Amino acid sequence: MKKKFFILTADSESNPARLEYFDSEKKYKNGQTAKRSIVIKSCFSINRKTDCKHKFVVAVYTNEDCFPIAFESEEELLKWFIPLLEIHLADKISEGEELKPIYEHVWQVTVQRKDLGSRKNILGPYRLCLNTTTRVLTLFKMPLSLPLELWEFPVMTIRRCGQTNHQFFMEMGRGAITGAGELIMELEEAAVAQNVHGAVLE
């Protein structure tokens, strides 16, 4: 994997805290423009990504896409992950509250044109997010824009769920916001679909 050079800038009167990356430290020192610059507080979520081939990955979810960053060790990952979370959650959590993402799990999914997807017009790209404290799954329509288009499903309203290859399905009970029926979602690969299934069943 080709290494990149990252800079985390602090909040200032003129600029909000940003994560910026360059092809190399040399290009940064030569004053070249960053290949990408992300305002941390405007991000949707910042999470550890556990369903990919690299073990130490932080996923920065913007309103448009996901920007993954791979690290060489747990120690190196935490040196970046904790400050990123502190900046991102500064206005969202109280002093002394546990520092963790609002959604512990975030997955990019494509809802299929079947059953509830078709009947309720829940189609195409969404973010599927799980809050493990409230045990609520939320589907956010992508790309994100205000007002947010979302569907919330308490895990207790799911009759059953499962995974086949790179698809994850949920059979909803009558108590769900959609009413009874099935939602089928396609993920990037089978390992990610397995990760969704395991997290929902926990």
From TrEMBL:
<dbReference type="GO" id="GO:0048477">
    <property type="term" value="P:oogenesis"/>
</dbReference>
<comment type="function">
    <text>Activates phosphatidylinositol 3-kinase when bound to the regulatory p85 subunit. May mediate the control of various cellular processes by insulin-like peptides. When phosphorylated by the insulin receptor binds specifically to various cellular proteins containing SH2 domains. Involved in control of cell proliferation, cell size, and body and organ growth throughout development. Also has a role in a signaling pathway controlling the physiological response required to endure periods of low nutrient conditions.</text>
</comment>
<dbReference type="GO" id="GO:0008286">
    <property type="term" value="P:insulin receptor signaling pathway"/>
</dbReference>
<dbReference type="InterPro" id="IPR001849">
    <property type="entry name" value="PH_domain"/>
</dbReference>
<dbReference type="InterPro" id="IPR011993">
    <property type="entry name" value="PH-like_dom_sf"/>
</dbReference>
<dbReference type="Pfam" id="PF00169">
    <property type="entry name" value="PH"/>
</dbReference>
<keyword id="KW-0677">Repeat</keyword>
<keyword id="KW-0675">Receptor</keyword>
<keyword id="KW-0221">Differentiation</keyword>
<protein>
    <recommendedName>
        <fullName>Insulin receptor substrate 1</fullName>
    </recommendedName>
</protein>
<comment type="subunit">
    <text>Bindings to phosphatidylinositol 3-kinase and SHP2.</text>
</comment>
<dbReference type="InterPro" id="IPR039011">
    <property type="entry name" value="IRS"/>
</dbReference>
<dbReference type="Pfam" id="PF02174">
    <property type="entry name" value="IRS"/>
</dbReference>
<dbReference type="InterPro" id="IPR002404">
    <property type="entry name" value="IRS_PTB"/>
</dbReference>
<keyword id="KW-0341">Growth regulation</keyword>
<keyword id="KW-0896">Oogenesis</keyword>
<feature type="domain" description="IRS-type PTB">
    <location>
        <begin position="103"/>
        <end position="202"/>
    </location>
</feature>
<keyword id="KW-0597">Phosphoprotein</keyword>
<dbReference type="GO" id="GO:0005158">
    <property type="term" value="F:insulin receptor binding"/>
</dbReference>
<feature type="domain" description="PH">
    <location>
        <begin position="1"/>
        <end position="89"/>
    </location>
</feature>
